[in-house]
């Protein structure tokens, strides 16, 4: 896997049972997020953006697909594999039943069926092991790192220094044993009111992650809380107050402080400004941008406002009904929007220009009229370098001509 890739999502499906039917909230999407970039995920409400973010941070057990973080598989879908295993086993039983009735030899077919069942069994076993043990394995790696760090120090220290150093060593080992790879992914939630516990003070809310992590030093915890409050534009005096005493923008700053105190490498920002006043939105966006540069964060930015995402993101993926329909660099996407849905979204962006607004025409998106997939289904294709679109062969040729004509 590419060392620059921090997060890699492969064929992610997230389905929810709804009585006898199934809701395909996220349907077979793939994308990767590079270290240090802001990856924008946009689309209308209900298209699966938030579900994707929650699946990445393991708030949901994914239906199928794989999610890799720092090269480690942190989530693997088993439900689809288990259903496929059941189907393969039933087909094997039916084949044997027919063979007995007809008196035919199906030895080769049974051998192939057994091999397929064994393959599926091993995939299911490996997926369950990764889901269960990825955090434990990361903790073991952290313990080894702590031992390697303290081993030469303990060998070279004097008798007077040994007691203090051994205490630090034991404390570091205890904290390392509680480390989780998923701690390196933190989320900023959409609703700053619902995401904060009204019974906890700001200090307790921000410090909760450190306490769960196993840190007991109250002085260190307070120092970190005050430092985070300062980074997000609040003061230490705010630490003793409760969430209801703050405005919406201040609550979102508290949520950001709670996320960055864990020293994450990836922040999932789930529409962090949609519940805020327009005057506050720019402040929060600028704050996240400043923190991204200062703390070297990677951001998965989820939003429905394309104009905000353009300002903030390096690359943008457009989602529609659970699928990614277009993925490109921010400038490229706005310069050459290809998929009809992307063009429809861009046409809906208002500008503070009365003359332009009088002439602006809204482009409707009607999938049945825009596409003809009766002969060939669509797949994700690269139109030009780094620009991917969900299309069939005929649309691919048309998009290529359009790009070459504008080049």
Summed up:
The protein has 407 residues and is an alpha/beta fold. Helices cover 50% and strands 20% of the residues.
Provide structural commentary.
With 407 residues, the chain is α/β, with parallel strands linked by helices. The protein has a domain of 120 residues: Rossmann fold. It is 50% helix and 20% strand. It is built from 14 helices and 12 strands. The strands form 2 sheets. Strands 6-7-8-3-9-10-12-11 form an 8-stranded mixed beta sheet, sandwiched between helices. It has a 4-stranded antiparallel beta sheet with strand order 2-1-4-5. β4 and β5 form a beta hairpin. α2 packs antiparallel against α3, α5 packs across α6 and α6 packs across α7. The longest helix has 50 residues. It is globular and about 85 Å long. The protein starts with a strand and ends with a helix.
Topology:
Blueprint: E1 5-18, E2 21-34, E3 38-42, H1 49-56, E4 64-69, E5 72-76, H2 79-102, H3 107-156, H4 159-177, E6 185-188, H5 202-213, H6 218-231, H7 248-260, E7 266-270, H8 278-295, E8 298-303, H9 306-312, E9 315-320, E10 323-329, H10 330-335, H11 340-347, H12 354-359, H13 367-370, E11 379-384, E12 387-391, H14 393-406
Parallel strand pairs: 3-8, 3-9, 6-7, 7-8
Antiparallel strand pairs: 1-2, 1-4, 4-5, 9-10, 10-12, 11-12
Number of helices: 14
- Helix and strand element order: EEEHEEHHHEHHHEHEHEEHHHHEEH
Mean pLDDT: 89
Helical content band:
40-55%
N/C terminus separation: 32 Å
Structural class: alpha/beta
Strands, count: 12
Which fold does the CATH topology of the domain at 185-304 refer to?
A: Rossmann fold
């Amino acid at each position: 896997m590419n060392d620059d890739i921090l997060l890699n999502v492969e064929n992610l499906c997230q389905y929810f049972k709804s009585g006898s039917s199934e809701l395909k909230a996220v349907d077979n999407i793939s994308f990767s997020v590079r270290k240090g970039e802001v990856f924008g995920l946009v689309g209308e409400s209900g298209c699966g953006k938030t579900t994707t973010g929650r699946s990445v941070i393991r708030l949901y057990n994914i239906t199928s697909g794989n999610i890799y973080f720092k090269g480690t598989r942190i989530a693997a879908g088993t439900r689809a594999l288990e259903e496929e295993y059941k189907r393969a086993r039933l087909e094997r039983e039916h084949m044997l039943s027919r063979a007995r009735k007809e008196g035919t030899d199906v030895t080769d077919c049974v051998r192939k069926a057994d091999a397929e069942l064994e393959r599926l069994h091993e995939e299911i076993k490996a997926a369950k092991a990764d889901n269960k043990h990825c955090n434990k394995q990361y903790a073991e790696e952290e313990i080894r790192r702590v031992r390697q760090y303290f081993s030469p120090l303990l060998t070279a220290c004097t008798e007077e220094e040994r007691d203090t150093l051994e205490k630090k060593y034991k404390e570091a080992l205890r904290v390392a044993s509680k480390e989780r790879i998923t701690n390196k992914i933190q989320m900023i939630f959409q609703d700053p009111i619902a995401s904060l516990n009204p019974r906890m003070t700001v200090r307790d809310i921000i410090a909760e992650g450190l306490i769960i992590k196993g840190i007991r030093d109250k002085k260190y915890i307070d120092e970190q809380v005050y430092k985070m409050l300062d980074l997000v534009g609040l003061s230490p005096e705010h630490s003793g107050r409760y969430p209801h005493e703050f405005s919406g923008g201040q609550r979102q700053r508290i949520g950001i402080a709670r996320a960055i105190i864990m020293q994450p490498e990836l922040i999932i920002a789930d529409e962090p400004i949609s519940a805020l006043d327009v005057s506050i939105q720019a402040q929060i966006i600028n704050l996240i941008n400043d923190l991204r540069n200062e703390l070297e964060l990677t951001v998965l930015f989820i939003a429905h406002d394309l104009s905000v995402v353009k300002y903030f993101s390096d690359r943008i993926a457009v989602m529609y009904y659970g699928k990614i329909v277009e993925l490109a660099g921010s400038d490229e996407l706005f310069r050459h929007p290809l998929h009809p849905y992307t063009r429809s979204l861009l046409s809906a962006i208002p500008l503070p220009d009365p003359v332009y607004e009088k002439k602006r025409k809204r482009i409707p998106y009607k999938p049945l009229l825009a596409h003809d997939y009766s002969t060939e289904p669509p797949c994700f294709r690269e139109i030009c370098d780094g620009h991917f679109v969900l299309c069939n062969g005929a649309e691919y040729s048309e998009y290529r001509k359009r790009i070459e004509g504008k080049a």
